[in-house]
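Review form for a predicted model. The reviewer records the input and the model, then writes brief findings.
Reviewer: anonymous (R2)
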Amino acid sequence: MDFVKNLGKEAWQWGADIINGIVDGIKNCIGKVGDAVKSVADKIKSFLHFSVPDEGPLTDFESWMPDFMKGLADGINKSKKYVEKAISGVADAMTIAMNSDFNVDMSGVTGAMAGAGGTTVVNNYNNDNSRTVNQTNNSPKSLSRLEIYRQTRNALNV
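Model under review:
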């Protein structure tokens, strides 16, 4: 019978012992929790520090930009034909505009004019008020239609 009478008092002590055991366990192992958090933080730091990371997707970041620029240059080279076609279209449109708006008053202008790249434009005015324009381009490389147009416009705007 004493066993049953003391059971309540002992159960109270058992509960206290359980709680104290948990508290003591937490206190004794708090260093392990800190070590675990530090380990996780160190792992994250190895991916994200301010120099080249030791591991992860950014370990080769220094080669990323040169690789990107090479890829960009390769893409430009592969797509040059599209840019050339677009520029050619612009030059053709300028040629059409130049031919349709080519009403320039050249009265009183005579002689030759030296332009960029060894270009010479000779304006000859005839007695019947017509004109003949001879343009010679002495350039080490072929001139684009746009450059020829620009030089011709400059010569006619003397």
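Findings: The mean pLDDT is 75.
Further findings: The first helix runs from residue 2 to 48.
Recommendation: see findings above.
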